[in-house]
Amino acid sequence: MQIKDKRAILTGAASNLGHTISRELLRNGVTTIAMIDIRETAGMQAMDALNAEFGRNRAIFFRCDVTKNSEFDETFKKAVNALGGLEILINTAGVIDETDFSKAIDVNVTAVIRGTLLGIQQMQKDSGGKGGVIVNISSMAGLYSLSQFPVYSATKHAVVSFSRSFAQPYHYQRTGVRIIVLCPEFTPLTNDLPEEEECFQKYRPQKIDSLAHGLIYAIRCAQNGSIWISENGKPVYEIQMPDSLPQKPEDSASEKH
């Protein structure tokens, strides 16, 4: 998929990672990007910085709590109307909260699912759309067991599973919307992190830039349903996951006797 002249929505856009991804999308030719985040001051600052760099109204900020369904629905529609359409959606919003696990599930799982469904509704070919791509940001914590942060790990596993399930041919052949998962490395600093963003504070700038570059590559070239790893500031790479459980061996003749 070519990025030039496409329109994009990014959730969690006020974070350092979201800002960097937004800049990279605009640098690669996205016409306009709608930035959605609950943090209004940081979001407005990010929008102003991008418009100063790329031109007036290239970035539009919408303040929204993605855990409130009606608010998210309304904001998403406003964003699409402001853009005049949608071809790219990136869900980056995330938190780490092992105490209030409901909050972690609401932000990391429910909002990602809702955002994905809203994006598909706008882009799906069987309803008059042109197709498009959705990138859901998970984590390497969503690919292995993480004893220190079990709730966070579980939510990121859910993002991987949901994205791969919705990328199956049953959906893709109808919608024409590719769904891709990007898993950054997980580098916690303490045992109690209120925001996922703090995990990225340990990153050197080139690591965040590398992740953003990898996301651009995934949008352009990644196959539907693929999973990509970003770690150590190196180029992203794809991993393969099994699609089914191994078959149980049949009882041998010796076992029958």
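^ that was protein a. below is b, sequence first then the tokens
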Amino acid sequence: MPTVPLVDAHMHLWDTSAHAWYPGLARFVDAGRPDIAENFLPADFDRALGSVEVSALVHMSASTAPHAYLDETRWVDGIAAASSRPFAIVGAVDPTLPTAELIAHLDEQARTERFRGVRVFEGLSPNTLAADAIASWLQEHDAVFDLVTKPGEILDWIDFLAGYPELRVVLEHLGFPQGRSSEARSGWHNAISLAAKETQWLCKLSGFGLICRDMTWPSMEYWLESSVALWGWRRLMFGSNMPVDSLAGTYTELVSAIDHIVTTDATDQEAEFFYRANALDTYRLR
């Protein structure tokens, strides 16, 4: 297991008993995992850690009710204010809004001290007015674009984001592989190979619960080895995606499997980049 405290660059908190901000979590209930949609608050996160030490957090918006991200950002900021850990918040924005209102929503979230950027989970395409407005605002404000995309869309995003050379981009969840078949693996590998070669993006080593049967080395080996070979430790960062990734295992199991390749492949400095420095720098947690 890691000998240094980690920065978790991708985690979620939600209080579904108090806030109707997360209708999208119903899919886990329908899939037979209602536990994923239960409250996940700081105490629950700490219990999930087991023996893993986490020193700083990046909270990712998971709200799916219309414009609930505005309330969610304020709510998480209140939680962060009472935490002993440094916290960064990545909010969201509705890409269907008129441009002026979209910008107003970004401005409102930016008034929160810990706001660092946005992710748009659904409905955003490159080469659109919304994408232009979001990328322009983020670049102007030196904020992070947490890119949610699939392998088939990555080339279009590479072309579009080339027009924003100063924008800091982090590819979420390895670029969301779409399956474990040979065809799906090949499509994913080709897409992220291009992204790694043609861009300065960083990439989150996260989202394994969405693609792996369990959190063991045999299940995760292909995705881990391919990602490290393509991106290198200086451009990768650790994220747990908890509680969602508990679909496939525990926090400790996740970190143990990842640390297998860290200890065999990375130098001490590279491990520091991956586990801590890349996220600290990207999300201004120092």
